[in-house]
Amino acid sequence: MSEVRRPELEELCRRLVALSNGSLTSVIICTEEAEILAHNPVTEVDQDAAAIAVGNISAFRYMTQAYGFKPPKRIDVDFGGERLIIKPLGSLILVAKTSAKPNLGLVDLLLENVKL
């Protein structure tokens, strides 16, 4: 993965939320150590979402190594309508929170095309 700068990550977060037409309420990019590098909306950051993401990725990486599973392309957690979607991006982690009734087809398309 090439070195991506924070302004580029901030722009990616902003663009994903804007293109989702209300389906994504927040996008965070963090490190495996839970350091938040970029987020949108820029006025608030959900540190709990980042912590959940890092915990899940750590657990799945352990299972991958211990049991020979393939690493996950993404993790999708349903909280009774709202979702937390976690996507590994090399050494970074993308965390997307959805609205209560997201257009999951659009969200899938947007997140599938994210590459760093």
Distance between the termini: 6 Å
Q: Give the biggest sheet.
A: 5 strands, antiparallel
| Derived structural class | alpha+beta
Whole-number mean pLDDT: 87
Q: Any low-confidence stretches, pLDDT <50, length ≥5?
A: none
State which percent range the strand residues make up: 25-35%
Helix content: 25-40%
**Number of beta strands:** 5
Shape: globular
Q: What series of H and E elements makes up the topology?
A: HEEHEEEH
Q: Reading side by side through the largest sheet, how are the strands ordered?
A: 2-1-5-4-3
**Number of helical segments with 4 or more residues:** 3
Rg over CA atoms: 13 Å
Summary of the model, kept short:
By secondary structure, this protein is of the alpha+beta class. Helices cover 38% and strands 28% of the residues. The chain is built from three helices and five strands; from the N terminus they run H-E-E-H-E-E-E-H.
